[in-house]
Design brief:
This protein is mainly α. The chain contains four helices and no strands. It has helices spanning 5-14, 27-30, 40-50, 56-64. The relative contact order is 0.24.
Amino acid sequence: MDPRLPRLRRKLAQIPFSPLRSHSFGEEKHRFQLGRTVSPATLDAFETDHGVVLPAPYRDFLTFLGATGASPF
């Protein structure tokens, strides 16, 4: 696993409590929460179905942090 991912998780968790942060559109809904993670088996199937190989850091992000960004977009 990419060693930067735990640090990124901590930083994302701190955003809502940062006193000097800017407020983003829709944050009352997403609250800077990442979407659910994706299993390695699901990623394997995706790669097979689409004939691609996802970069290892991206696979790590999807399996360790979440499959969607921490915002509505």
